[in-house]
Amino acid sequence: MKLNFLQKFSAILISCFLVVIIFTNHPLLSQTKQLSCELYAQEAVNALRTRLNNGCFPFQYSPRWQPFYANHYNWCLGASEGDKQKEIRIRNRELNNCQYSGCEAYASLAVDQNTHNQNLGCGFSGAAWQSNIRNHYDWCRNETPFSWIKNEALRRNDQLGSC
User: Fold this and answer.
1) Do 113 and 153 contact (CB within 8 A), yes or no?
2) Is the per-residue pLDDT at 13 higher than 60?
């Protein structure tokens, strides 16, 4: 099929229009970037909330773990899509590592508390009082917020104190 002059001209004109939109600060591109960065900034702030609710506190200041929506948003506006995706991957990995390590510590403490329960002859029993570390770990992974997990460990500690 042979294209006539008008079809060729239209195809070139449309191509040029798309290049202008893609490689300039055209409002359509700008609006898409702004919406993307709004979502990015909200997810970054929510990730920090999740991290803190899980009892994982950043040990030093990091722009990745700051509570300021505007800072995340402005960084995103100047970042490439690749840099933005890399930051999201790193943040998610750190968040997951935090959750896992917190649950490992909780499970280990729960088993230690049950060992004291048994050694002291307190007689506490039930799901909270068992020596299966995997059960404690799985329970922790499925519980939110972290305050519930912390309260469970404190409750067992109080019970041991009264034994």
Assistant:
1) yes
2) no
Convert the pLDDT of each residue in 57-92 to its tens digit.
Answer: 554 567 888 888 999 999 999 999 999 999 999 998
Contact 83, 64 (CB under 8 A): no
Q: In this structure, what token pair is assigned to residue 106?
A: 């909780």
Q: Give 131's contacts (C-beta < 8 A, 6+ positions apart).
A: 111, 114, 115, 118
Q: What is the pTM of this model?
A: 0.50
Q: Which conformational region is residue 123 in: left (phi greater than 0), alpha (psi within -120 to 50 degrees), or beta?
A: left
Tell me the residue type at 25.
N
Q: Which residue has the tokens 């490689």?
A: 23
Q: For 26-61, what is each residue's pLDDT tens digit?
A: 555 588 899 999 999 999 999 988 877 776 755 456
Beta-carbon contacts of 150 under 8 Å, excluding residues fewer than 6 positions away, are 55
Amino acid code (one letter) for 40: Y
